[in-house]
Design brief:
- This protein is mostly beta strands.
- Among the domains are: about 90 residues, Sandwich (Immunoglobulin-like); about 100 residues, Immunoglobulin-like; about 100 residues, Immunoglobulin-like; about 80 residues, Carboxypeptidase-like, regulatory domain (Immunoglobulin-like, Sandwich); about 80 residues, Immunoglobulin-like (Sandwich), CATH 2.60.40.1120; about 100 residues, Carboxypeptidase-like, regulatory domain (Immunoglobulin-like), CATH 2.60.40; about 90 residues, Sandwich (Immunoglobulin-like), CATH 2.60.40; about 100 residues, Immunoglobulins (Immunoglobulin-like, Sandwich).
- Helices cover about 5% and strands about 45% of the residues.
- The strands form 20 sheets. Strands 2, 3, 5, 6 and 7 form a five-stranded antiparallel β-sheet that branches. Strands 9, 11, 13, 15 and 16 form a five-stranded mixed β-sheet that branches.
- The radius of gyration is 34 Å and the shape is globular.
């Protein structure tokens, strides 16, 4: 594709999955400055809905304000003060109150203990409640000390009153303590790298926003220290009913907050008598980062610099101060999402930022593996500072306004979003009573600084800064607009607690994609989303308000796991005005089922993820966990086709289509889908792989192919001996190929899966190569970049050794691309299996040349490709798509196929077989070769437009117009009970229209990611679907060895699927 915003297959992997860590957080807002909160029972800036601070980086201090932030070391020779002993006065007093049970009835004969708030003792004076539940302590206590009353009785839950202070001549009266029968939780802690039990892990309970739960959790830990044993197991008893966060903590170990495969925390709600098995805690070793902070000009150390370990979004996981040698070290660094060497190990990342008075902020982003130590040196330039005044439109100063600098593109995009709770900026300050500020730590050159204040729209100012040159920047803020309304369900009832966010509709396509895809998504065991923590939620009456908005058009999002995600039309916001927007949430679809292990037993604690990644302007990803019976439930799903997998960390399984994993969901319906280690009716392929006779060890493989079931893909990794297995493989013909990065490698072996069960296939990869050079016609080396591309073709005549060497449509899409050496024009293409190939050279300046056929049974050397001096061009105008919706997360994308006179498609390299029609319905394909070709433009849901005998001439542009019309589908159902569409490998068909013209639809990447599901087969009714037929009357002729031809006539209507019943008669 010729649009850098559309990385397609590879880019989707990066954006979606690395995006489950760093790229997902593009364009987020600042909590204090640009992410207003909802008004519940208090002010519009009530913080009650902020996420748990322990799940997010801690906010930084304001190190560049106009306040003195120096911290001189004390004189070591100065005499240290000696603390005077504290003398406490004991007073005679009474402590009394009432104990009640869960139903608020008096609790008789309960032993209560009086404990000090300030020490860790778990014993103290006791008393027993009477028949009315009353209790009394009559004793001497320290005046001014704090105490509380607790129930530590073995057969009851541990509960307590709030703390109270002892005063002379003032008894403590009217206390109330609730007594509960105890709940219990138990579980196991595992090493995420080895899956072995992890010993010595502390288990703690606390509340997310519930002070009572936090207090009881601390008391529980005071009474009983809970640590995992040598078998990794633990249990926590005597728990009072309530909602708790259960944490696992071990020095040097942690979990990645975005990764469903690691877990250090989970949220549970317990009732009396509950006996709950928790999901396994899965921890990986943290990484370590060490380094120096140095002056950039002479590499001298900077002592006393503050170094923050955080994310690209700001904030800090940890803070260090450099020593006299400029050194710093972090011993607990979040590793990549996949732990040490597991899937996803390279996904995720941290930022290391250094700040020091007089210097500009310095930072580096990096990823670290579990247990790895990385060295990072930060080089600091002389910094710049600005001063100024923040005022309103009338010129009155604004006190308490925030002035800050966004030090990367991720944070700069945050100015376009409201509703995301994130830490404040590293480089920031606050205006004084006169509206004045001083902001330091800024780099030299062009910078953008932002000012924001409550009830005002934030504003950017750009300046070019020079060290040592004072710069004044004044801000005038205008009143902010807001969006407010009420959220209801389909019955008109208010919905409480729905996360709300808005983003600026004028922002880039990536902003829309990321917000629509990931806002409000959360891992259910962790409660609040740690990726996009929501700062705005609807109140008990369904009301919400988003304030602090600049004048613009906005898109509002509402996302709850109980309802289908809501995306508003564009909403106009004006200065100082309120835009009202009320809406209803629709009940989403649900996928539910059970997960089974290799022995057919249900598995608990398994993450199950569903994803719908193409055919929309956003991706849809949701994760749930199986309960103790192996059951899972994914709710709030929009209509569509989802890949549903047991999440093992191999994120490609969410992207690559596989009929065995696909589930179609309609609006509001429940669909059952069980997940098996080996799905019934499918095959398990296993064996050993060698490469040129040596074990292909610890390497990735891809299985690609299919049959009438549609094209499918799967991935796996060989072990140290080269052994592999692919599970739940539907019947069909496949390639087992080396994983080649953005697409499968051309080192491959074709296999046929014609029965269910275990099939052993040993693979010996043999590789060949092509070498040669590229030159210009008439001599000389081409200037600029030249891609040399090898793509597979079917053998010609006598070259064919067997039928399996014929190449299907899918295999023709795969190619190997290298760059010509600019110095001498030579090239070398390695990593090819013996076979037959087309060789193409395509220049950025001089056009394209193709050698259509090479017999590559063995390596071939000395190939010469001569490029024409002038390229041919193809210009297209597209009509009929004015109402077409985006069919990918990157916009409206069509697939272009250029075939030679033999009907073989030409690989253009990169992603140039895709045409971006999002913003314009015209396109130009540069640098094509001379010749006569067949050109087809395809779009899912429309009739492909084909031009035959298109002549391309060097130095000229050929114009074509593609007028699209809606297409229909034909569903072919085999009525024979003894013929299965899964295993009828020899089944073939031809389709001709009423004019006698043959219909043939070339397979494209859009079919591979068809929004309606690439699985055209339905095993339940023994059928398969032929898609994108032009409205017409057709005759289909089907042939199958051992049977007479079957001929049926049918008519296709645009936008509909016609049923075609076929009955074969035996010969």
């Amino acid at each position: 594709m010729r649009d850098s915003r559309i990385p397609l297959f590879a880019g989707l992997v990066v954006l979606l999955l690395a995006g489950l860590a760093v790229a997902l957080t593009l364009f987020n807002g600042d909590t204090r400055d640009n992410s207003p909160r909802v008004a519940l029972d208090d002010s519009p800036f009530d913080n009650s809905n902020n996420p748990d601070p322990e799940t997010l980086p801690r906010p930084n201090r304001n190190r560049f304000s106009n306040e003195d932030t120096t911290n001189p070391k004390p004189d070591e020779n100065y005499p240290k003060p000696v603390a005077k002993p504290v003398v406490k006065l004991k007073v005679k007093t009474t402590v009394s109150g009432l104990a009640v049970n869960y139903a608020d009835d008096p609790a008789e004969n309960i032993t209560l203990t009086l404990l000090s708030e300030d020490d860790g003792e778990i014993s103290g004076p006791t008393t027993v409640t009477d028949a009315d539940g009353l209790f009394l302590f009559d004793l001497e206590l320290n005046e001014g000390d704090q105490y509380f009353v607790a129930c530590l009785q073995e057969d009851k839950a541990i509960t307590a009153t709030g703390a109270f202070t002892i005063s002379k001549d003032k008894p403590v009266e009217g206390l109330k303590i609730q007594i509960f029968d105890p709940a219990r939780v138990y579980g196991i802690v595992l090493n995420g790298d080895t899956n072995e039990p992890l010993e010595g892990v502390n288990i703690k309970l606390e509340g997310r926003q519930d002070d009572r739960a936090s207090r009881l959790g601390r008391l529980l830990g005071r009474v009983q220290l809970i640590v995992s044993g040598s078998d990794g197991r633990f249990e926590v008893e005597s728990i009072a009913p309530g909602k708790y966060l259960v944490r696992s903590e071990k020095s040097g170990w942690m979990a990645h907050p975005f990764n469903p495969l690691t877990r250090a925390m989970q949220e549970v709600e317990l009732a009396e008598f509950a006996n709950l098995e928790l999901l396994p805690f899965i921890l990986v070793q943290s990484g370590m980062i060490e380094g120096k902070v140095l002056r950039k000009s002479d590499k001298s150390p900077i002592a006393g610099a503050t170094v923050d370990l955080g994310t690209v979004l700001g904030g800090s996981y940890d803070v260090a101060v450099t020593d006299d040698e400029g050194k710093f070290r972090f011993d607990t660094v979040p590793p990549g999402m996949g732990g040490n060497n597991g899937p996803g190990a390279d996904v995720g990342g941290v930022a290391v930022r250094a700040t020091a008075p007089g210097y500009a902020i310095a930072s580096k982003d990096l990823r670290i593996r579990s247990g790895q130590t990385r060295t990072v040196d930060l080089l600091m330039d002389d910094g710049c500072s600005i001063t100024g005044i923040v005022s309103n439109l009338e010129g009155a100063p604004i006190s308490g306004a925030r002035v800050y600098y966004n030090d990367n593109d991720f944070l700069r995009g945050g100015e376009l979003v409201a509703g995301i709770a994130l830490p404040e900026r590293t480089v920031s300050t606050t205006t004084d009573e006169s509206g004045r500020y001083t902001l330091g730590g800024l780099p030299a050159g062009d910078v953008t600084v932002t000012a924001s204040a409550e009830s005002f729209a934030n504003k950017d100012e750009k300046r070019s800064l020079t060290p040592g040159t004072p710069t004044e920047v004044n801000f005038t803020l205008e009143p902010a607009g807001s969006i407010a309304g009420v959220v209801t369900n389909e019955r008109g009832e208010p919905v409480e607690g729905v996360p709300i966010a808005v983003f600026d509709a004028s922002g880039p396509q990536q902003l829309s994609f990321i917000m629509k895809s990931f806002f409000g998504e959360e891992l259910p065991d962790r409660g609040e989303s740690t990726m996009f923590p929501a700062s705005i939620r609807t109140d008990a009456e369904g009301r919400y308000e988003v304030v602090g908005l600049k004048p613009s058009n906005y898109v509002l999002l509402a996302n709850s796991r109980d309802f289908e995600k809501y995306v508003s039309p564009e909403l106009e916001v004006k200065p100082g005005s309120v835009t009202e927007h009320n809406f209803s949430l629709a009940v989403g679809g649900t996928i539910f089922g059970r997960v089974y292990d290799a022995d057919g037993q249900p598995e608990s604690g398994v993450p199950v993820t569903c994803a719908s990644l193409m055919g929309n302007d956003s991706v849809r990803v949701r994760t749930a966990y199986t309960d103790r019976s192996g059951n899972y439930e994914l709710t709030g799903l929009a209509p569509g086709t989802y890949n549903v997998v047991r999440n093992t960390g191999d994120f490609t399984k969410l992207i690559l289509p596989n009929a065995a994993n696909q589930v179609n969901v309609k609006a509001g319906e429940r669909v059952e889908f069980d997940i098996y280690s080996q799905k019934p009716g499918t095959a398990r392929i296993y064996g050993r792989v060698t490469l040129d006779g040596q074990p292909y060890a610890e390497e990735n493989l891809v299985l690609l192919g299919g049959g009438f079931s549609g094209f499918a893909a799967n991935t796996t990794k060989t072990d140290a001996s080269g052994n592999y297995e692919f599970r739940s493989v539907t019947l069909g013909t496949y390639q087992i190929a080396q994983s080649g990065g953005r697409m499968p490698s051309l080192v491959r072996k074709r296999v046929r899966v014609d029965r269910e069960g275990d099939i052993e296939i040993n693979v010996d990869f043999v590789t060949v190569k092509i070498t040669g050079r590229v030159e210009l016609e008439g001599g000389g080396i081409p200037e600029g970049g030249v891609s040399v591309i090898a793509s597979p073709v079917s053998p010609n005549g006598a070259d064919s050794g067997n039928d399996d060497e014929n190449v299907n449509d899918l295999e023709m899409m795969v190619f190997r691309e290298v760059q010509m050496k600019k110095e001498d024009g030579t090239f070398e293409i390695t990593g090819l299996s013996p076979g037959f190939y087309r060789l193409t050279a395509r220049s950025k300046k001089n056009g394209m040349v193709t050698r259509p056929y090479l017999n590559l049974r063995a390596s071939v050397n000395g190939i010469v490709l001569s490029l024409p001096l002038d390229p041919a061009k193809l210009h297209g105008v597209v009509k009929g798509l004015d109402e077409a919706e985006n069919n990918t997360p990157f916009g409206l994308i069509a697939a272009m196929t250029i075939e030679d006179e033999n009907g073989a498609p030409i690989a253009l390299g990169g992603f140039d077989n895709g045409v971006n029609l999002t913003d314009t319905k015209e396109f130009t394909v540069q640098n094509l070769s001379e010749g006569t070709f067949t050109v087809t433009l395809s779009l899912t849901g429309y009739t492909p437009i084909t031009y035959k005998n298109v002549k391309l001439t060097a130095g000229q542009t050929t114009d074509l117009t593609f007028t699209f019309a809606s297409s229909g589908n034909a569903k072919v159902k085999l009525l024979n009970e003894d013929i299965s569409v899964e295993s009828a490998f020899e089944l073939q068909y031809d389709i001709v229209n009423s004019k006698g013209e043959t219909f043939k639809k070339r397979f494209t990447f859009l079919d591979f990611f068809d929004q309606s599901g690439n699985s055209s087969q339905n095993t339940d009714d023994n059928s398969f679907v032929i898609k994108d037929l032009p409205p017409e009357t057709y005759t289909i002729t089907l042939t199958l060895p051992g049977f007479n031809q079957a001929v049926e006539t049918f008519t296709v209507v645009a936008g509909e699927t016609v049923d075609v019943a076929v009955q074969f008669d035996k010969e």
